[in-house]
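REQUEST ID: PR-0412
SUBMITTED BY: lab tech R.K.
PRIORITY: routine
TASK: structure prediction, single protein chain
INPUT:
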Amino acid sequence: MSTNEELKKIVREKYGEIASQGKSSMKSSCCGSNETTCCETDEDLKIFSMDYTNLEGYNPDADLGLGCGLPTEFANIKRGDTVVDLGSGAGNDCFVARQISGPEGHIIGVDMTPKMIDKARENAQKLNLGNVEFRLGEIENLPVQNEEADVVVSNCVLNLVPDKKRALKETYRILKKGGHFSISDIVTYNAIPDGLRDEAALYAGCVSGALIKEDYLKLIEEAGFINVNVQKETKMQLPDTILEKYLEPTAIERYKNEFSGIASITVYGEKPRDKTKTNCC
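STATUS: complete
OUTPUT:
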């Protein structure tokens, strides 16, 4: 099992490659360490990605097809809000959020991959958006002040974070009292069978780092958030054409018989206005 730092290094290197390649020519969104066994086609990638083209503020140059939801669509962003995007990539969700919050708002994208930050800043400069900025940093140690954000969004990123508990504590810290988040992520419906988790990691890193849905929601509540609810849920089926790339026939049979599957969920949660009103303890 890789250590947290090793996992981060793998993710940083892989997503650095993606930033350099762009959506049309990229080979994978995989976090696996062996490039030849990772997802190799756009068909694989589209299993999780959602269509942004009808959202105002959408910028094709910022869309690398790495998401698994549309968190900004459910985030209840208001005019003038400060919005922080965790794992902002090339800036896709940031630019959509800016369209909603307007020139009075402030959008902060945080990503730990330098090449992604460079690409996002380049996109913001092209769009001449002075109130959108991108900061290099890790979600477990966000370069954002206490209670700076009205809204936090994130798109298919927490499943890649080794210390999810720490990431949620940081999310809680940067939100203003009464602020809220809308996060899209991948979860599982039951535990991945023994022996399959490492192989499933070859599929975009989304399965290997995903938590069981109930555990994921419990972790959010334990971080202190209230009114936690699933805004959207879409069960994902991995077709045989993809499973056959990474699993032997016997493993595919086990996958189908023992594993209930994965889902893309968008989750909402609020930071209490009153410290005493929490779901923890």
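NOTES: Residues 4-267 form a domain with the Rossmann fold fold (CATH 3.40.50.150).
REVIEWED BY: pending
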